[in-house]
UniProtKB/TrEMBL annotation, chain B:
<feature type="transmembrane region" description="Helical">
    <location>
        <begin position="6"/>
        <end position="33"/>
    </location>
</feature>
<dbReference type="InterPro" id="IPR035906">
    <property type="entry name" value="MetI-like_sf"/>
</dbReference>
<dbReference type="Pfam" id="PF00528">
    <property type="entry name" value="BPD_transp_1"/>
</dbReference>
<keyword id="KW-0472">Membrane</keyword>
<dbReference type="GO" id="GO:0006865">
    <property type="term" value="P:amino acid transport"/>
</dbReference>
<keyword id="KW-0029">Amino-acid transport</keyword>
<dbReference type="GO" id="GO:0043190">
    <property type="term" value="C:ATP-binding cassette (ABC) transporter complex"/>
</dbReference>
<feature type="transmembrane region" description="Helical">
    <location>
        <begin position="177"/>
        <end position="196"/>
    </location>
</feature>
<dbReference type="InterPro" id="IPR043429">
    <property type="entry name" value="ArtM/GltK/GlnP/TcyL/YhdX-like"/>
</dbReference>
<dbReference type="InterPro" id="IPR000515">
    <property type="entry name" value="MetI-like"/>
</dbReference>
<keyword id="KW-1003">Cell membrane</keyword>
<feature type="transmembrane region" description="Helical">
    <location>
        <begin position="54"/>
        <end position="75"/>
    </location>
</feature>
<dbReference type="InterPro" id="IPR010065">
    <property type="entry name" value="AA_ABC_transptr_permease_3TM"/>
</dbReference>
<feature type="transmembrane region" description="Helical">
    <location>
        <begin position="81"/>
        <end position="98"/>
    </location>
</feature>
<keyword id="KW-0812">Transmembrane</keyword>
<dbReference type="GO" id="GO:0022857">
    <property type="term" value="F:transmembrane transporter activity"/>
</dbReference>
<protein>
    <submittedName>
        <fullName>Polar amino acid ABC transporter, inner membrane subunit</fullName>
    </submittedName>
</protein>
Length: 254, 211
């Protein structure tokens, strides 16, 4: 079952093409990794899906709802407010820099949206929050504030915050790039566990071995285009495109 | 001496009234002005900017005279001096507060807005529950400065004939051929500001649970 379907997605910044016609689909339960050099448009793609950036062309469908489409005349037309809000809740996003709310306790970070957006009672929200914290190995930290946690712990809280709204797809925007290598492992483990539970995920990452391990499918992007797409085996062991080969070689050398 | 202290206490009450009423109206008005200053509409933001420039660029004493006398010269209408003092102080202080608010609001990282948006918060909820609490913490030192200045600025109310603490002290000095009342007034201002300082310190401590 298709959860996300993107066709010919275009995005420009000041007339400069960042996404030059991206098309892909994502099925339920699938883990899709997006790799590629910096500036290739990976993060922008996620930001377009999560409505943080308006698009300049193409179509995005999420959970059988048309979030945005482009008319034949080339006019971009977003869905109405209600649909956009629904779609927003279909997708969760974990940021590179966590973006936790510093003035709220760890538990409050996870319950705030449940209460305000989903209308859950405080008791229910707390219960969901606590069980997610337990899952993240942070049950002791519910009263702590983000500034008292390590980067890895903060990122786990932000994953719990996104999961609390029961998204259909969880998107990760370079979730380990702000962490030192020692802390990277704990985040990758959390994502691996989610993959085992068949959580549908899109992971933008620079961690090649991780992408190889957890993904059902990998997309290699460069200069605003999808250069190559395939299973991890195909893409990492036997890339067909010379650009992909060069990129992966450079990684192996390091 | 007892009589003098009673008079000075009455003057202090007037000063405190000016102080409290100015804060009561200018704190929320400042937020409105800050929003206007940050408006995407260039007409609104420019108009508000001109207002702020005038308020910060001319003496408060002149503004008080203008607020009280302009309606008389233009419309022939006169009104209560105390009301004029409050109006003058409020529009002046709202401009200063607005710039402090603006600085605070613009210092909140964009990631806080993005996280709020992705989580589905409404714009109002984002402002009241995510942005505003963090702004309050950031602007406390600057607000402390401004509020202390306000305590001392209340002395300017006498320009349009409102007998606040300093005016009472000056009158007493003139009557008694002594600078003592003015010196006592100084002690009064100092004590009031010690209280203001202390309150801001406490507030700062209270919000120290995160950074």
């Amino acid at each position: 079952m298709e959860i996300i379907s993107v066709a010919n997605l275009k995005k420009e910044f000041d007339g400069l093409g960042v996404l030059k016609g991206i098309s892909f689909t994502l099925n339920k339960g699938e883990v899709l990794s997006i790799i590629g050099p910096s500036g290739s448009g990976k993060s922008t793609l996620l930001r377009c899906l999560t409505q943080l950036e308006p698009i300049d062309g193409g179509t995005i469908e999420v959970c059988s709802k048309t979030m945005v489409r482009t008319t034949e005349a080339g006019k971009v037309s977003y869905a109405n407010k209600e649909t956009l809000k629904e779609v927003r809740l279909n997708l969760g996003l974990v940021f590179q820099s966590f973006n936790l709310f510093p003035h709220m306790s760890v538990l409050r970070n996870i319950t705030e949206a449940q209460m305000h957006v989903l209308g859950r009672s405080k008791e229910e929200a707390n219960q969901v929050g606590r069980s997610l914290l337990a899952k993240m190995g942070l049950e002791e930290k519910e009263k702590a504030y983000p500034c008292q946690l390590s980067g890895g712990q903060q990122q786990r809280v932000s994953i719990a915050r996104a999961l609390a709204l029961n998204p259909d797809v969880l998107c990760f925007d370079e979730p380990t790039s702000a962490l030192d290598p020692e802390l990277t492992g704990e985040i990758l483990k959390v994502i691996k566990d989610l993959a085992k539970e068949k959580m549908t995920m899109i992971v933008v990452t620079h961690e090649m071995s991780f992408a190889r391990d957890i993904s059902d499918r990998v997309i290699f992007m460069d200069d605003g285009l999808i250069v190559e797409e395939g299973t991890p085996q195909q893409l990492f062991n036997d890339p067909t495109n010379p650009r992909t080969k060069r990129f992966l070689n450079r990684y192996e050398q390091n | 001496m007892g009589n003098l202290l009673l008079q000075m206490l009455a003057g202090t009450v007037t000063s405190l009234k000016i102080f409290a009423l100015t804060l009561l109206f200018s704190l929320p008005l400042g937020l409105l002005v800050a929003k206007g200053r940050m408006s995407k509409n260039p007409i609104i933001s420019n108009m508000v900017n001109i207002y702020i420039m005038i308020m910060r660029g001319t003496p408060l004493i002149l503004q008080l005279l203008f607020v009280y006398f302009a309606p008389y010269y233009i419309f022939g209408a006169s009104y209560d001096r105390f009301t004029a003092v409050i109006v003058g102080f409020v529009i002046n202080y709202a401009a200063y507060f607005a710039e402090i608010y603006r600085g605070g609001i613009q210092s909140i990282p964009i990631g806080q807005y993005e996280a709020s948006l992705v989580l589905g918060f409404s714009k109002t909820h984002t402002f009241t529950h995510v942005v505003a609490p963090q702004v309050v913490k950031r602007i406390i030192p600057a607000m402390g400065n401004e509020v202390i200045t306000l305590v001392k600025d209340t002395a300017l109310a006498q320009t349009i004939g409102v007998a606040e603490l300093f005016r009472v002290a000056q009158n007493a000095s003139a009557r008694q051929f002594s600078t003592m009342p003015i010196f006592i007034a100084g002690v009064f201002y100092f004590l009031m500001n010690a209280l203001v300082s202390r309150s801001f310190d406490l507030l700062e401590k209270k919000l120290n649970y995160y950074h």
